[in-house]
Amino acid sequence: MSSISKSAFKKFLDQMPFGKVVQKTKNAHRGQRLWPSQTSKNDKKYNFRADKGSKLPDGRQEIIIQANKNADDKGVRESAQKDSHRIVAKVAVDPVKDPQGDSINEDALNSFEENN
């Protein structure tokens, strides 16, 4: 199995509109895609997707990042084809204290390194 490169993951994070994603967690249901919108073009282009996870007791919202099965990046694609539900990274954000998602990038990279 090819591994997911950190550079592919960083590229995804560099494109993610953190503030918009954090705001979407308020009204989305658990498991619902937050970003990018679900199209085969986006799945291929962005390689990953961000879904809403659980709401934590302290009010923070989990954001789950997973690989897409038809990703352009070979390592990402092979990983997703092996297990499309595997969590590549998971972060918790506070929509009240951190509405712009300033903590997401660093937390997601740390989670990625722990999980890959």
From TrEMBL:
Highest taxon in the source lineage: Eukaryota
Chain spans, region Disordered: 24-116
Biased segments, Basic and acidic residues type: 41-61, 70-86
Record protein name field: Uncharacterized protein
